[in-house]
Amino acid sequence: MGKKYQNYLSYPIGLFIALLIFSVILLFLGYDPISAIVSIPTGAFGTPNRISETLIRFIPLLLTALAFLIALKARFLNLGVEGQLYIGALLAYLVGARMGIIPGFIAIPLIFIAGFIGGVLWLAIPLIMKTKLGINEIFPTVVMNFIAMFVIAWLTTGLLKDPNMNNPRTPDVPESTWLPLTDLIFVFYIFMTIFGLVVTIKMYQKWKEGKVHPTLYLALAFTFLTLTIISLLKAIEAIIIEAFSVYRLHVGVFLVVIIALIIYVILYKTTIGYKIRAVGQNPRVAEHGGVSVTRVVITAGLLSGGIAGLTGVMEVFGVNHFLIKGFSPGFGFQGIAVAALGSFHPIGVIFAAFFFAVLQKGGESMQRGAGIPVDIISIMVAVLVLTVLIIRKWITTRNSS
């Protein structure tokens, strides 16, 4: 088995060991581990509404992981993603709240731009301290998180507070700025379209390289191309008949996957991406090779802060439709674990974010059904991440020895 495929084994092995440890903990505490573990998939996928909520949780987890990942590739440890998503949400709210008479096709792009700028501005201070003053970015980015949270808390209980509400929140943003809802069937067909198209292209490349027999290639290409066409036609049909559900799932689920694919192209198919990775691997060698390390770090940092700001936009304009104190349950910090689980790769974090979302939403069901405290569920997620990382490191060390 190739080394590449051996690394993939860390996921099922890590999951098995983590569930085993989790089961022992549950037995020790007097809970039924089987019913608890079974409640995870049912809690995440048991009903259309649960699937919708799982995908809604997937959106911020993926964005924050991408924000952390792209900065890390340039050796900039952005621990301020949480603060950047708060300020991105704030600036987007300040812009969106004044767009009641502006059509959605104009208002929505403007609030995304505002959110991106908000995240960039909030990261600009640690970025300047890093590149101009040589100050390590860890402390400034962490401190900026708390400042951002305090700013939101102050505004939502004072200047921006909705006088008709007891909760620390603002009035609703205009409906024209809400992200459009989508349907689970439509989501499924779109992702199947993308999957079929990607596999068809990959098979073509393997056939051109002589790695796949022509007969096998024709059979597989026909199968996946048919899947692509049927899925695309079904997606178009869903749009025509407007078969959209009443659930909260919005178009952000498509946007975040597109953003992940764009980040992949930037990092692995462009010159600037090569420079970012070169700086991340060895800044001195990159600088001797003619790469401006400062410029690369600033570029990666600005992208990171902007993506973090978009996370806040998705939550305010796609889910809540208002700004509220503490609307993020730590997405910025959870994104670090998601990025690690996804091997710090833009495609890997798509699956890692989805897996995290399943664990979190399934864990909530576990809490309701089996009465297991939410803190134990958080321990399970942490154990899973650590187990996968340890096993992956062991496999890598074993392959290199």
TrEMBL record:
<feature type="transmembrane region" description="Helical">
    <location>
        <begin position="12"/>
        <end position="34"/>
    </location>
</feature>
<feature type="transmembrane region" description="Helical">
    <location>
        <begin position="54"/>
        <end position="72"/>
    </location>
</feature>
<feature type="transmembrane region" description="Helical">
    <location>
        <begin position="141"/>
        <end position="160"/>
    </location>
</feature>
<dbReference type="InterPro" id="IPR001851">
    <property type="entry name" value="ABC_transp_permease"/>
</dbReference>
<feature type="transmembrane region" description="Helical">
    <location>
        <begin position="331"/>
        <end position="358"/>
    </location>
</feature>
<keyword id="KW-0812">Transmembrane</keyword>
<feature type="transmembrane region" description="Helical">
    <location>
        <begin position="184"/>
        <end position="204"/>
    </location>
</feature>
<feature type="transmembrane region" description="Helical">
    <location>
        <begin position="107"/>
        <end position="129"/>
    </location>
</feature>
<feature type="transmembrane region" description="Helical">
    <location>
        <begin position="289"/>
        <end position="311"/>
    </location>
</feature>
<keyword id="KW-1003">Cell membrane</keyword>
<feature type="transmembrane region" description="Helical">
    <location>
        <begin position="216"/>
        <end position="241"/>
    </location>
</feature>
<feature type="transmembrane region" description="Helical">
    <location>
        <begin position="370"/>
        <end position="391"/>
    </location>
</feature>
<dbReference type="Pfam" id="PF02653">
    <property type="entry name" value="BPD_transp_2"/>
</dbReference>
<protein>
    <recommendedName>
        <fullName>ABC transporter permease</fullName>
    </recommendedName>
</protein>
<dbReference type="GO" id="GO:0022857">
    <property type="term" value="F:transmembrane transporter activity"/>
</dbReference>
<keyword id="KW-1133">Transmembrane helix</keyword>
<dbReference type="GO" id="GO:0005886">
    <property type="term" value="C:plasma membrane"/>
</dbReference>
<feature type="transmembrane region" description="Helical">
    <location>
        <begin position="247"/>
        <end position="268"/>
    </location>
</feature>
<keyword id="KW-0472">Membrane</keyword>
<feature type="transmembrane region" description="Helical">
    <location>
        <begin position="84"/>
        <end position="101"/>
    </location>
</feature>
